[in-house]
Batch of 2 targets.
Target 1
Amino acid sequence: MSAQRVRRKETPATRDPWKGRGEDHAEAEDPFRDASRADYVYRQMRQAIRDGHFRQGDRVREEDVARTLGVSRTPVREALRQLQSHGLLDVAAGRGLGVVALDRPQVLELYAMRALLEGAAARLAAQHATPAEVAYMRHLLEEFRRTRDATRHAAINRALHEAICDAAHNRYMMQSLQQLGDALALLQGTTFSVKGRPASADIEHKTIVDAIAVGDPDAAEVAARAHIRNAESLRLQMMPL
Ligand SMILES: [Zn+2]
């Protein structure tokens, strides 16, 4: 599969940009269009995994994804390769490509890393957040309080953690958290469906945002780490032993 890709890229001289427009092979040879389509497929797949349309261990077939999303197989192949390299898909013996099934030790590893990175993001945000960024975080806190729906809570929670990451103003932090956020899509269901969790998370979020607002990096980091630790213990309770 990858050998074919390489061969095609190595022979650009054979390509006539005007010939065969609209045909399948011409579409497959436009790297820019393929790149944006691959990105689209990647995001759709990540969301489908997050929403549980694909369950852990489910097989993922290139042709099925291409047909469902109405794109050619080239961007699908690229997106699946990226999902594999980011740890969302893997190849299991006798099964082909499938959604990674996280075991308990992997979940612990994921949360350990998340606690460190979210803590560091909150610390940097306390040093660098603008008043507008803090105002946006407070707006999200209000939104979170207004909703009664667990899926919506999870979406607003993601937006809040992204806002904290943005306010850190560090592109490497952003990359690391984005990649970790992709892996979090494998944790299906949401801890916000646990009774009492939206209320306790709201208090924890407010503690983090207050520390960022007053520019207290130590307090922001401690609060963010504690928040992730609490999410972790709920997540472990939700997992089968
Ligand atoms: Zn949170």
Target 2
Amino acid sequence: MPNQFEFDTVINRMNTNSVKWDVQEGQLPMTIADMDFKTSPAIIDALAKKISTRIYGYEVPKDNYYDSIVRWCTSQHNWEPAKEWIVYCNGVIPAISVIVQRLSNIGDNIVMFTPVCNAYFNVIFDNGRHVIEVPLDYDPSVNEYSINWDLLENAFSNGHASLMLLANPCNPTGTCWKQSELTTILRMAHTYHITVVCDEIWGDLVLAPGQSYVPVMSLPKDLTDVAIMLTSTSKTFNTPGLHSASAIIPDRALREICSRGFAIADIISPGTTSLQGTIAAYQSSDDWVAALKNYLWGNVDHAKEFLASSIPEIKPVPLQATYLMWLDCSALLSNGKDAADLAEYLEKDTGLLLLPGNRFRGNGKKFLRMNVACPRSELDDGLARLQKGVSDFQSGLAPAQSQQEDASQQTSK
Ligand SMILES: Cc1ncc(COP(=O)(O)O)c(C=O)c1O
């Protein structure tokens, strides 16, 4: 299929203030959830038009912003939110921080499945709350995760839990939670008076055939009155720089608390390009998203094949959603070594940067996370570096600093 959106094109992002690409010459970052692709043509046009107005004053979301979200949820996910449920904010993580402040007290416990998005831990600790981890069960024979319901109920019932943070789908495991699972979580939350914050920032990027994302708010109303849904264009369209996200909250009282909290924390002012970018994403970028998902799934498939044939010691967890491959490296780790040691070795030996799973907690210290949202040639470069690094690691060689120079010639950056 012709690649009309140029996902194969390598774009040099060094020296562009990119967090991901703030690396040394010759290093290859396959780290934070940021894609190395141009965003959709509709967003690029909308931003160019906005910049050309030459006046960048204060803005406020209007009907066309809310309409675009309703359209997207309805057309992509077959679920229609009411416009009045939607509350604008400047990001999912800032929203979680405010929700933690408003809906829990200092010293409270906040429940989450682990491994999970590392930013959650910072938000909770920075706000003086405790984390109660509910480690997902892991079956190494199929490399799959599942919920341990007894542990969840223990965490809910311990008396000091007020909130649960749930990534649906989950970063880093790539799991889409099923309707029956979400239903059980919300039922339990009702029983123990827990508010469930459902972070659905990855909901648009379900890649595996036969899998689907279930928006928490598509469940019956008598369950969703304890839930807050958060969403954004940030992951799907690679637009974290728009600083635009939405909380979708059917329950009026919860919505009031969150709206007031967002206003007090001053996370309700759109940036110059926030509104136009979001509207262009949700109104006029369907083809681009379809092509993106296709390309990403091709990359995942390609990486899986390469791992199976060339680095069979690494077992990828079957990815349902996200573009973050979660690689079980247990077979490589002995003598007290963990994923952080392996990641450090790979960096020194080959210049390949992957995230060690330690920071996602749960059983993460045996895993590496690899971001495959990049042109195929960049992915091939990363896989070749991984193969070399793993082979050197297994031979017990000291990491070959000099190899970084060789590696830098393989990448087109
Ligand atoms: C589950 C999850 N939530 C939130 C974020 C970041 O959200 P934002 O940039 O809107 O604060 C990420 C980033 O990777 C994520 O994986």
